[in-house]
TrEMBL record:
Protein name as annotated: N-acetyltransferase
Domain N-acetyltransferase span(s) in chain numbering: 208-383
Gene Ontology MF, one: acyltransferase activity, transferring groups other than amino-acyl groups
SUPFAM superfamilies per UniProt: Acyl-CoA N-acyltransferases (Nat) (SSF55729)
Naturally occurring in which organism (per UniProt): Eiseniibacteriota bacterium
Database matches in Gene3D superfamilies: 3.40.630.30
Length: 383
């Protein structure tokens, strides 16, 4: 089969942005594990005037098109997409010149990926970057990482999914592992007795109290999450503090699906020292909508949402000076016990840095095991 001849150009105008968004449906046609994103949400995310990431970041979207008719389609057909991203906040925090790539989707031919990577790399070089990292859409605060193990089940809410051949495309074009992100899974309705007894002893010994989110004071609770998040994660690999606008945007986006009893605060002597945020796995419902709310997508989501039986614990952290007291185990145990009572009998804990033993040990004590691995890659940029 002859190699495809492709041209990669920046996205221009609403029509091409629509092509950028909808190209994924071609890549995943027939893949039962892919969960289509809501097209309306993705449009807002990519809109430079609407998503708060664009207030401190620069992004260029690219499409790869066939130059001539061939086995992959007619001339002009879209065969790949990528975004090149400069997160100025990341580079300020880490004192780096790292650019990112994200929203990467491509047909199986690796030569198309080569053209996409070169276009993104050239744009990042013009911005003064010396390294390209990804995938991240847009940052570690959103979806990030390439699925490299665990292709036998759909992703949970706000987690990524991709074809297996993406691994070869990246690694054959000079990308090397920067960090693995682990997803733990637990499917057991009976919390281990030893964990419950340990949690009881810890509560008495440390005087740590765990409380649920108060939805009537939602604005105040969001402020508390903002403070705790930026304090507890500040030394983590790849961490970028969320701006006030980003926290507010995420809170508004998630509020309709939040279950207040899946959001916990740990307090010591009445002062907050950590929090945990879990979400019902709305991907179980979104899978039925095929990316559209109308005319029938919303109805399908509402029907399927009643059947959600899984949760994703997407963040749990303790401020540094209070780590090692057991607050993490107390929150895990509370989420486990209360979640089962509320009809959730399975959960994913993700993502967790592969070298974060402090977070991994309590999960393994609960009986959770790693079932998916996501990889963040790096490649040098030669200017």
């Amino acid at each position: 089969m002859p190699l495809p001849s492709v041209q990669v150009t920046p996205v221009q105008g609403a029509r091409e942005l629509d092509e950028f968004i909808k190209f994924a449906w071609r890549v995943y046609r027939g893949d039962r594990n892919w969960v289509p994103p809501l097209i309306s949400d993705l449009r807002k995310m990519l809109d430079r005037s609407k998503h708060p990431f664009h207030q401190h970041g620069e992004v260029e979207y690219f499409l790869a098109r066939l130059r001539e008719d061939g086995p992959l389609g007619r001339a002009g057909a879209v065969v790949g997409r990528i975004a090149a991203i400069v997160n100025h906040l990341h580079n300020e925090v880490h004192e780096e010149k790292t650019g990112f790539f994200g929203f990467y989707e491509v047909l199986p031919d690796p030569m198309i990926s080569a053209a996409l990577f070169e276009a993104a790399s050239a744009w990042l070089a013009e911005k003064g970057m010396d390294r390209m990292r990804g995938p991240a859409s847009f940052s570690t605060n959103e979806e990030c990482g390439l699925l490299v193990d665990g292709f036998d089940s759909p992703p949970m809410v706000m987690m990524t999914y991709n074809p297996r051949y993406y691994i070869e495309h990246l690694e054959s074009h000079g990308f090397t592992k920067a960090m693995d992100l682990l997803a733990y899974y637990l499917d057991d309705r009976v919390p281990p007795d030893r964990v419950l007894k340990l949690a009881e002893r810890l509560t008495k010994r440390t005087k740590i109290a765990i409380r649920f989110l108060e939805k009537k004071n939602f604005g105040r609770e969001v402020e508390l999450v903002r403070d705790l998040y930026n304090r507890a994660w500040q030394k983590n690999w790849g961490f970028v503090p969320m701006t006030d606008a980003e926290i507010d945007h995420m809170a508004a986006s998630l509020k309709p699906v939040l279950d207040p009893r899946l959001i916990l605060f740990a307090e010591l002597d009445g002062k907050p020292i950590g929090f945990a945020l879990a979400l019902p796995d709305v991907n179980q419902a979104l899978a039925k909508a095929n990316g559209r709310l109308f005319p029938f997508g919303l109805l399908r989501i509402l029907i399927e949402s009643r059947r959600i039986h899984r949760v994703r614990v997407l963040t749990l952290g303790i401020v540094e000076e209070h780590r090692g007291l057991g607050a993490d185990l107390l929150m895990y145990a509370m989420l486990y016990s209360d979640g089962v009572r509320r009809g959730y009998h399975a959960g994913e804990f993700s993502w967790i840095l592969e070298d974060n033993e402090l977070m991994r040990r309590p999960l393994e004590a609960l009986g959770a095991t790693v079932y998916k691995t996501y990889r963040v890659y790096d490649r040098s940029i030669v200017r």
